[in-house]
Write a sequence for this structure.
């Protein structure tokens, strides 16, 4: 996919890379511009349907970033990583519906923190507090560790690899 995506920018370099790709990945082509095996992960309609939720997440992330910087400046959060923080996030009702629905993402991932609790309100606001639990040695997020010392998410990831 990188060769295909970089081809318009680095035409000659991607053609050189093509010489070193395994034959099964070259799709019978010599030039990267002729590759056709890349497929977009979603259609334009699917993508456009998710834009309002993405815009709400970006606004919420901006509120978190400001609150995190304030929490560090005032000493509320002493760790040098946002993963050692949790957020109490208030968002407008429309954004709440988008960010807390069944298909919503876990906001702790794009915020790069340990936990985000979302509440409906009138405007975007965020309070940052120290994270609860202990630091997971695998993902560095602060969560309640299991018997193996890993958070539930990391335990499940390791378990799926072992299967």
């Amino acid at each position: 996919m990188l060769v295909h995506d970089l081809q318009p920018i680095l035409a000659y370099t991607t053609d050189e890379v093509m010489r070193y790709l395994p034959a099964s990945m070259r799709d019978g082509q010599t030039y990267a511009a002729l590759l056709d095996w890349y497929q977009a992960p979603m259609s334009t309609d699917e993508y456009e349907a998710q834009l309002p939720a993405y815009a709400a997440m970006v606004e919420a992330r901006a509120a978190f970033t400001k609150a995190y910087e304030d929490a560090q400046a005032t000493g509320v959060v002493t760790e040098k990583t946002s993963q050692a923080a949790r957020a109490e996030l208030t968002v407008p009702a429309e954004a709440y519906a988008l960010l807390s629905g069944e298909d919503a993402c876990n906001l702790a991932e794009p915020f790069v923190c340990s936990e985000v609790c979302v509440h409906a309100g009138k405007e975007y606001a965020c309070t940052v507090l120290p994270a609860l639990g202990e630091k997971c040695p695998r993902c560095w997020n602060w969560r309640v560790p299991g018997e193996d010392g890993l958070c539930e998410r990391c335990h499940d990831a390791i378990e799926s690899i072992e299967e």
Remarks:
- The radius of gyration is 21 Å.
- The first strand starts at residue 85 and ends at 92.
- The chain has a mean pLDDT of 90.
